[in-house]
Design goal:
By secondary structure, the protein is an alpha/beta fold. It has helices at residues 5-15, 36-64, 68-82, 95-102, 128-138, 184-189, 191-196, 217-224, 242-247, 263-278, 286-297, 317-321, 346-359, 396-399, 523-530, and strands spanning 117-122, 145-150, 164-167, 205-210, 214-215, 234-236, 259-262, 302-303, 312-314, 330-331, 367-372, 377-382, 386-391, 406-408, 434-444, 449-456, 476-481, 496-502, 506-512. It has four domains: 1-27, no CATH class; 68-102, no CATH class; 114-309, Spore Coat Polysaccharide Biosynthesis Protein SpsA, Chain A (Alpha-Beta Complex), CATH 3.90.550; 354-530, no CATH class. The chain is 30% helix and 18% strand. Helix 5 links the parallel strand 1 and strand 2 (145-150).
Length: 531
């Protein structure tokens, strides 16, 4: 049967329906031309769409020109496309991730320096003439910023190398009900806030300390560089006394040992601290008031063991000779303990301590343990402070524990009231260590090594019947060590020491990074077990 044009169009329409009867497309008859007005409409719509698309792409390109993340991503894409087939693509944690971290904030990888730190030092007019000498030891005029906050005016000399002196604000409006404490605790607790209100620029950290605290500022900078100053950080350490930490808090940084507060946290603290202080009239000191406000802000203590409160009495030798594997940041209560070197004043002892501090602050009082296998001696070196020589072989596990040359802050408390492990002073007269204190130190420019001499402490030693060479014959120990400013950029580990030579009157020892497979091995004990 012959189909008309109308019937043909109907067949085409029916064939382009889906099984459900829904039209799939509208098809015009191949022999039928579109009306002219339809052609012009389609042409107009097409041209308009092309123009609109070109404008959109151009606008998007201009807006991305200043977007660092867009630039980093496209640079990375271009680099990937330009790489040969067998080339290695850059690691994922590259420019793009760095840009993401730095958007809207100071670059995390921009190192913190002394000029980014502001010190707030708590002092009293009554003790100022005596304690300002401690501050002179570590303060660096022109390189550091800070304020000494006093309770009343004192006489100052314009030529003294000291921070600016200011008088703390009036605190009579605050309640204080602790009968055992003193109202000055409120004044001292507000030092960080008062320092913040001075409006100093380019500040990343506020560091609190007392006038009888000595800071190793290079190590302080090393510690703070571990943390992002744009975040909330409250950094410090605990007391050496377990009872102190129980009475106050194991979450509290002790202000005498010093603590650091990041700028954003100091800003938040300043806004609420006065209200916070009013809620805790019964607290004893400034430290616990600060921690109470940190608890309200929800910020925990970040512990760094190099801040030392030194809540002890007596001789610090045991603590300094077995310092933990961490940079020494601060020492407090220097008016309470004995001078760290014998037969000199406290200030004179610290002046001697400053010498190795300037030569190699990162390695200051870091312990190394080695053995003189020929003479069967154990040698412990606290670089820049002292050397101990023991008869016989003692394990590193024992030597790295501080010997109890000091007394607890609570006189009736025994050795179980420390917040760390200790070991008793040797009772066996033959095991009593021979101590050699630092006498002088310098840098040998030809070898780029520090040379430090340690002279034997002249005290009487009981007679010993052990059949081995007597360390009493030694007059001095010489220690050679290269400065290692990157020590704390690596994972924590004690340095190794090696006996270079051991003569009758002197011993030479080299200290430095441990070599591959090098350990403080108890060689003599191993041999004796094999016999």
């Amino acid at each position: 049967m012959k189909l008309t044009q109308k019937d043909s169009d109907k067949v085409i329409w029916d064939q382009m329906r889906s099984p459900s009867g829904t039209p799939i497309a509208v098809a015009a008859s191949p022999n039928r031309a579109l009306p002219k007005f339809m052609v012009w409409i389609i042409l107009f719509v097409s041209v308009s769409y092309v123009i609109y698309t070109l404008k959109l792409v151009s606008s998007s390109s201009r807006s991305c020109d200043d977007d660092p993340l867009f630039i980093a991503t496209n640079n990375r894409l271009a680099l990937r496309l330009s790489l040969p087939v067998n080339a290695t693509e850059p690691a994922p944690d590259s420019e793009e991730s760095t840009v993401r971290k730095n958007l809207g904030q100071t670059r995390i990888h921009d190192p913190t320096g002394l000029d980014h730190i502001v010190f707030g030092i708590a002092a009293s007019a009554k003790l100022w003439d005596q304690r300002k000498n401690y501050i002179k030891l570590w303060w660096k005029p022109g390189q550091m910023r800070g304020v000494v906050w006093l309770d009343r005016p004192v006489e100052t000399q314009p030529d003294e190398d000291l921070p600016e002196v200011r008088i703390s604000g009036n605190t009579t409006r605050f309640k204080y009900t602790n009968r055992q404490g003193h109202r000055s605790a409120i004044r001292i607790s507000r030092i960080v806030s008062e320092t913040f209100r001075l409006g100093m620029e380019n500040v990343r950290w506020f560091v609190m300390g007392d006038d009888d605290t000595v800071f190793v500022t290079d190590n302080l900078v090393r510690v703070l560089n571990k943390y992002d100053h744009n975040q909330y950080y409250y950094i410090g350490s605990l007391s050496e006394s377990h009872l102190q930490n129980i009475y106050f808090s194991y979450n509290m940084a002790y202000g005498g040992g010093g603590f650091a507060i990041s700028y954003p946290l100091a800003k938040a603290l300043e806004k609420m601290q006065d209200r916070c202080i009013q809620r805790y009239p019964g607290l004893f000191a400034s430290d616990d008031r600060m921690q109470a406000c940190m608890a309200e802000l929800g910020v925990p203590l970040t512990k760094e063991v190099g801040f030392h409160q030194y809540d002890v009495y007596g001789n610090l030798f045991g603590l300094l000779a077995a310092h933990p594997v961490a940079p020494l940041v601060s020492m407090h209560h220097l008016d309470v303990v004995e001078p760290i070197f014998p037969n000199v004043t406290r200030v004179e002892a610290l002046q001697r301590f400053i010498i190795p501090m300037k030569l190699d602050s990162a390695g200051l009082i870091q312990q190394s343990i080695c053995y003189d296998s020929e003479k069967k001696w154990t040698v412990s070196i606290s670089w820049g402070f002292a050397v101990q020589v023991f008869r016989g072989v003692l394990s590193p596990r024992e030597i790295e524990m501080p010997s109890r040359t000091f007394l607890n802050w609570y006189r009736r408390a025994d050795y179980t009231a420390y917040a760390f492990n200790t070991r008793p002073v040797m009772r066996n007269t033959c095991q009593k260590p021979f101590v050699f204190y630092l006498s002088k130190a310098w840098l040998d420019a030809s070898t780029n090594r520090t040379v430090s001499h340690y002279a034997r402490h002249q005290v009487l030693y009981p007679a010993c019947r052990w059949k081995m060479p007597d360390p009493a014959d030694l007059d001095r120990v010489e220690v050679y060590k290269k400065p290692d400013p990157d020590l704390w950029n690596r994972s924590p580990r004690r340095n190794c020491c090696r006996i270079v030579n051991s003569k009758r009157k002197s011993m030479a020892v080299e200290v430095g990074m441990c070599g591959e497979g090098e350990i403080s091995e108890i060689v003599q004990a191993t041999k004796s077990r094999g016999r």
